[in-house]
Amino acid sequence: MRFSRRILTLCGVLGALGGCSGLYTIRNPYLSYTEEYGVAGTGAQRASSGAAAGAGTEATFRRSLTLRLRNNNPAAELNTTLLCWVSVSSIRSGEQQDALLRDGYVQLTQEQRIGSVFTLPVGTYVYAGGGSGGAMAVFLGPAQGAGTSQGTQGQQQGQTTQGSTTTTSTTTTPTVSSMTLTTPDVILVFSQPPVSCDGVAFYYTQNGAPLPSSSPGGGTAPFAGSNTTGGYKTFAQVDVYQCSPLNPGVFLSQGGSGRQQNEYIEGEDVVFDFMPLADANGNFCTVRFGAAAETILTLTTTTQQGSGTSSSGPSSGGG
């Protein structure tokens, strides 16, 4: 229970004079909030002093997880925004609230709307960032990488020479933003507030300028590069984000009928890998959970010299 030092000092002085009665009230901050807004959890119980049952111990709300955002693009900078939050309804006692606050979460003092998908009411616990609603701007420099090449020489057939083929395998060392925090209800990586899956989830820049789209008729920014060639990447290009109905982000698994591809388990590591090349489904971001998050990613590029064609894509190895 936290008290005002100034009030306690004043009470010490007035106590000798028989004063200070009713000057302050011992209250649990969780109960104060829930009584005002009517969202008290079923686990909160009032003790004789007004504190929740079990007061005086530092309870653990949830296990911590490690969240990593990794830029695997050796040719561009990564730009995006991160927001993690816990709903008021997930809190069952004042001790759980205190555990969140100790870990760096803060409570919203006004409602925050995030596109057409999320509305965070007053009192939502967000992992503190410097942006609106506790959002955290993320900027990661280019990855570092070294590659090896294997090639085959072209062959003469009549008057036609077949081009040589070069396969380049590159293992990158990504630039990483890493944090350990109490497991949130939701982790959202986004650049534009989501209103459709064509919105921008993240984008690549060189010296601060977004990479241009090489596709003809690409439209205007920020949608000009929402494809496999430009710097802007959409919610649809994050492999586990849900588009129908629109529900980007990843979520704490609540058990029940089975774990979905966009769900993590309490305490499980979460990694967002941002790639320079699309996978077979056009995704530029791969989200992985638990042990799979430690897999080393290798980029393989095959170039057919003389024909003007090439193919490339990411693969994974043990890590």
SSE topology:
Layout: H1 5-15, H2 29-37, E1 64-71, E2 77-86, H3 94-102, E3 105-107, E4 112-114, E5 118-120, E6 125-127, E7 136-140, E8 144-152, E9 156-157, E10 160-161, E11 165-173, E12 175-182, E13 186-190, E14 200-206, E15 209-210, E16 232-234, E17 242-243, E18 246-247, E19 250-252, E20 263-264, E21 270-274, E22 285-289, E23 296-304, E24 309-317
Parallel strand pairs: 1-21, 19-20
Antiparallel strand pairs: 1-12, 2-6, 2-7, 2-13, 2-14, 3-6, 4-5, 8-11, 9-10, 11-23, 13-19, 14-15, 14-16, 17-18, 21-22, 23-24
What key attributes describe this structure?
mainly beta; ten-stranded mixed beta sheet; disordered N terminus; 24 strands; 3 helices; 319 residues
Description:
The protein contains 3 helices and 24 strands. With 319 residues, it is mainly β. It has one domain. Strands 2, 3, 6, 7, 13, 14, 15, 16, 19 and 20 form a 10-stranded mixed β-sheet that branches. The longest helix is centred in the first third of the chain and has 11 residues, at 5-15. The radius of gyration is 26 Å and the shape is globular. Residues 1-56, 152-161, 215-224 and 306-312 have low confidence and may be disordered.
